[in-house]
Design a protein that fits this description.
Order of helices and strands: EEEHEE
Helix content: 25-40%
Strand content: 25-35%
Oligomer: single chain
Shape: globular
Number of helices: 1
Radius of gyration: 14 Å
Number of strands: 5
Largest sheet: 5 strands, antiparallel
């Protein structure tokens, strides 16, 4: 298990992760970010914030950036339904 830090980047800046998330590897860290984003985006919307410009910047325990996960990749607006 390795430690990963999920820093939240918003239009206002970056909010550093307070705690590490233990994952077996970077692939699992990526999947964990994907799992959390819809829930966090819903909270942001309820607070009146726009999550579409946000992303997780994920670092390993050495402080090296591993990857970013844009919220927009997981919460694209669904097209409106049309009536038939």
């Amino acid at each position: 298990m390795r430690d990963f830090f999920f820093h939240l980047q918003t239009p206002g800046g970056i909010e550093p992760a307070r705690l590490a998330i233990r994952c077996e590897g970077p692939e699992i860290a990526f999947m964990e970010a994907c799992r959390v984003i819809p829930e966090l985006a819903a909270e942001m919307l309820r607070a009146g914030d726009d999550p579409m410009a946000c992303q997780f910047v994920i670092h390993n325990s050495k402080g090296e950036e591993m990857f970013t996960v844009p919220f927009s990749e997981l919460i694209r607006p669904a097209p409106a339904r049309t009536r038939h």
